[in-house]
Design goal:
Blueprint lengths: L2 E4 L9 E7 L6 E2 L4 E7 L2 E6 L4 E6 L6 E3 L3 E6 L5 E4 L9 H5 L3 E4 L27 H10 L17 H31 L2 H5 L5 H4 L12 H15 L3 E9 L1 H18 L5 H15 L5 E4 L2 E4 L5 E3 L1 E3 L2 E3 L2 E2 L7 H16 L13 E5 L18 E5 L3 E7 L2 E15 L5 H16 L7
Parallel strand pairs: 14-18, 18-19
Antiparallel strand pairs: 1-8, 2-4, 2-7, 3-6, 4-5, 6-8, 9-10, 11-21, 12-13, 14-17, 15-16, 19-21, 20-21
Helix pairs in contact: 2-3, 8-9, 8-10
Protein name: Dihydrolipoamide acetyltransferase component of pyruvate dehydrogenase complex
Enzyme class: transferase
GO molecular function: acetyltransferase activity; lipoic acid binding
Length: 441
């Protein structure tokens, strides 16, 4: 009997996954352990390996399909072999393929098999009780006729908030208004016939032709999640960015002085990002307004610092989290940042390793960027952007000296704190960077 290809569960919080691309077509040979299909869940992308040798008998879920974990994505076997057709998602356990046999209807394939339709249960048919939604948001959704099972929650652990429902109602209103406007224009055009086009000498044939698109790229997987979260972040917070420059001349000198000893003792090289991370952590301990989250009707301030470090990948951006960064030394922090960044680039981060951050750092200095406007990672109150350090002439007393200045761009949620305390926090980060020995304590 054929072997099923199962949508795996990538972490405890995973509910569903997206099929990105199949690497084989039906009827093509497959070897056990060979990559057969790329999938994603939130910001995790991975390659699912073939469970057996044979040929790809069926593709149940096409590219772009979103299905619950445990769903049968396809089947591998020999031509003419029995193929199991899933009537519902199956359990994703260590022996999921064997467990699914009892709940599958068996069909006899005659000749070379073709793909079959997926029977995955859409999210809207899952138990409504399993949806995380606040009581206020649930009541509002019911009153407004909004199907909240289709909404993306922006609250803690993906909880649907009142603001999520309000946005859905507003979006529906816009859509109805746009549809009415389009109908009005269409009716007017029909009534006037082709005379408008015939008498408009400014409109040439080439102007009336549709624009040719060179390439159409579906927004799926990681790109879709990033797009949704960044758009939501800007819609549901009052973001403001302030800038400062820190003189890191002495920091770079100390870094160079300690380089050989730290490499010999700890087997690592300290980067400027490591020093900045340490400065941010110490500053957050003294400015807890910034180490907080704005959650519906309250602001939660945290004692622990769970530091997010943005890592750019070929297909998008991920933010691994360094937990309890306040309890780590500079070298310990450096080791964890490097380890998390390596796992991110190798696509080995678990979903749990990218959740729960209380503040985030993003560095574009390596691309030559000076200052920029980072977007908050909700529900965090702040995110610090790092630019490229530049050698700049600076007056020190009456003398002009060559100093290395580092741009710092802090975006904060004005709902959670005002400009003065945000500026005080950024000034504290600068103070630590300009007194690098304090970062070694």
């Amino acid at each position: 009997m054929a072997e099923n290809i199962i949508m795996p569960k990538l972490g405890m919080a995973m509910v569903e996954g997206t099929v990105i691309a199949w690497k084989k077509q039906t009827g093509e040979p497959v070897k056990k352990g060979e990559g057969i299909v790329d999938i994603s869940s939130e910001k995790i992308e991975m390659e699912v390996e073939a469970p057996a040798d044979g040929v790809l008998l069926s593709i149940n879920v096409p590219p772009g399909g979103v299905v619950p974990y445990g769903t049968v994505l396809g089947a591998i076997g020999h031509p003419g072999e029995l193929v199991a057709v899933a009537s519902a998602p199956v359990a994703a356990s260590g022996n999921a393929q064997a467990e699914s046999a009892a709940s599958l209807a068996i069909q006899k394939q005659q000749g070379p098999p073709t793909s079959i339709e997926t029977a995955a249960t859409p999210l809207s048919l899952q138990s409504r009780n399993s949806i995380k939604i606040s009581p206020v948001a649930r009541k509002m959704a019911e009153e407004e006729g909004v199907d909240y099972t289709l909404l993306i929650g922006t609250g803690p652990q993906g909880r649907i908030t009142k603001e999520d429902v309000e946005r859905a109602v507003l979006s529906r209103g816009h859509s109805q208004a746009e549809a009415a406007q389009e109908k009005s224009v269409s009716d007017a055009t029909t009534a006037s016939g082709q005379s408008t086009v015939d008498h408009n000498t400014a409109a040439t044939a080439s102007e009336l032709q549709p624009v040719q698109t060179a390439e159409r790229i579906p927004v799926t997987g990681m790109r879709r999640v990033i797009a949704e979260r960044m758009h939501t972040s800007l819609q549901q917070s009052a973001q403001l960015t302030i800038n400062m420059r820190a003189d890191i001349t002495e920091l770079l000198q100390l870094k160079e002085k300690l380089s050989a000893e730290i490499e010999a003792r700890h087997k690592l090289k300290l980067s400027v990002t490591d020093w900045i991370a340490r400065a941010v952590v110490l500053a957050l301990l003294g400015h807890k307004q910034m180490n907080s989250a704005f959650l519906e009707d309250r602001i939660e301030r945290y004692e622990a610092v769970h530091l997010g470090i943005a890592v750019a990948l070929e297909k998008g951006l991920v933010v691994p989290v360094i937990r309890h960064a306040e309890a780590k030394t500079l070298t310990e922090l450096s080791h964890e940042i490097k380890s998390a960044s390596t796992k991110a680039r190798q696509n080995q981060l678990a979903p749990e390793e990218m959740k729960g951050s209380t503040f985030t750092i993003t560095n574009l200095g390596g691309y030559g960027v000076d200052t920029f406007t980072p977007v908050l990672n909700p529900p965090e109150t702040g995110i610090l952007g790092i630019g490229a350090a530049r050698d700049t002439p600076v007056y020190i007393g009456d003398e002009v000296q060559r100093r290395s200045l580092l741009p710092l761009s802090l975006t904060f949620d004005h709902r959670a704190l005002d400009g003065a305390p945000a500026a005080a926090f950024l000034a504290e980060v600068r103070r630590y960077l300009e007194d690098p020995y304090s970062l070694l304590i």
